[in-house]
Amino acid sequence: MTENNSLPIGRRPTFNALRKVYQPKLAQAAVERCDLCSIELPAEHQHLIDPQNRQILCACDACAILFSAQNGTKFKRIPKRYRVLADFQMSDADWDSLLIPVGMAYFFQNSLAGKVMAYYPSPAGATESLLDLETWDALVQANPIINEMLPDVEALLVNRLKGAREYFLAPIDKCYELVGLIRLNWKGLSG
Q1: What pLDDT, on a 0 to 100 scale, did the predictor assign at position 70?
Q2: Could you tell me if 141 and 65 are in contact, meaning their C-beta atoms sit under 8 angstroms apart?
Q3: pTM for this one?
Q4: What is the pLDDT averaged over residues 177-184?
Q5: How far is it, in rounded angstroms, from Cα 77 to Cα 75?
Q6: Alpha carbons 65 and 81: distance in angstroms, whole number
Q7: Rounded to the nearest 10 degrees, how much is the dihedral formed by the CA atoms of 19, 8, 80, 20?
Q8: Measuring CA to CA, how many Å separate 16 from each of 10, 20, 38?
């Protein structure tokens, strides 16, 4: 597998194109604050996830370290790394067997449920798909890099929209964000 970590994801042509298509023209947002201590946050800040209820929290650096540094803490720190999986192998038959009705989905290991979860964008937001574990196991066998995903905080993001065949390991908060942007711009039943 090759990795391309040289460019931040927002500067890679693939994600820029996706963001331009789905990103609405939003007014200047209000000041964001740390969800744990209420300090004002810069635009680029840490995120934590509460795996129990899948809630993402904005956090200052101090709270991100304090509340996620030890095993057994309630929160997990979401990494900022992205990896392009240029050598990822998924046939059209593999994709079809996953029964995802749209051309994009993300998959992550849910540590509390003890299984891989699959979600795709829909007019209602992120929609869970019942994952065929046989197909998933075959994908993992063909693509061992999947085993490097950190549980709860990283996901395999699959883009097969309009003929694309793109695969990424991405932070879970960015997957949620992408689904939210798509939902905001969804038109009609088929999107």
Answers
A1: 63
A2: no
A3: 0.77
A4: 82
A5: 7
A6: 17
A7: 0
A8: 6, 6, 31
Grouping H, G, I as helix, E, B as strand and the rest as coil, residue 20 is helix
Q: Which of 157, 79, 170, 171 is nearest to 121 (CA)?
A: 157
Residue 20 confidence class, pLDDT cut points 50, 70, 90: low
Residue 83 CB coordination number (10 Å)? 20
Return the structure tokens found at 38: 């209420």
Encoded tokens for 139? 């994908």
Residue-level pLDDT at 59: 94
Half-sphere exposure of 47 (CA within 13 A, CB side): 21
Question: Angle at the Cα of 172 (from 36 to 43), degrees rounded to 5?
Answer: 50
Contact 165, 113 (CB under 8 A): no
Instruction: Please give the Cα distance from 8 to 162 (Å, whole number).
Output: 24
Residue owning tokens 């059209």: 92
**Residue 111, token pair as written in the block:** 């540590």
Alpha-helical runs (H) found in the chain: 13-22, 61-68, 92-97, 133-142, 172-184
Predicted confidence (pLDDT) per residue in 92-105, tens digit: 999 998 888 888 99
